[in-house]
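ingest -> validate -> predict -> emit
validate: passed (alphabet ok, no gaps, 99 aa)
predict: started
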Amino acid sequence: MLIKFKKAGTWDLPKTINQAKKLELLFRAPIKASDINKLKGLIGDDDLFDLISSEEKVFGKNLDIRGMIARKLEYFLKDSSSWDKESISICKNIVNKFA
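emit:
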């Protein structure tokens, strides 16, 4: 599935080691569409949240959204020069497992 994203409307990214580690912990279990609030302070993006909302309407609140988050994270990693190096590494591992 090809998903195009844009950067406008992005307010949180896991640029720090602490944020990336929290995101990594969150990815250890399925993340339900209804639990989108767990992403607060880790990754926040209008396009991602709109996509999750649309998919939740079709597949229900128990939909595992880790793949959607990972694909969006993959997009943001293309411009991660201001991120901590360890954060980049953690996020790439997430992408490799779930995107």
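Helices lie at 17-26, 46-59, 66-77, 85-98.
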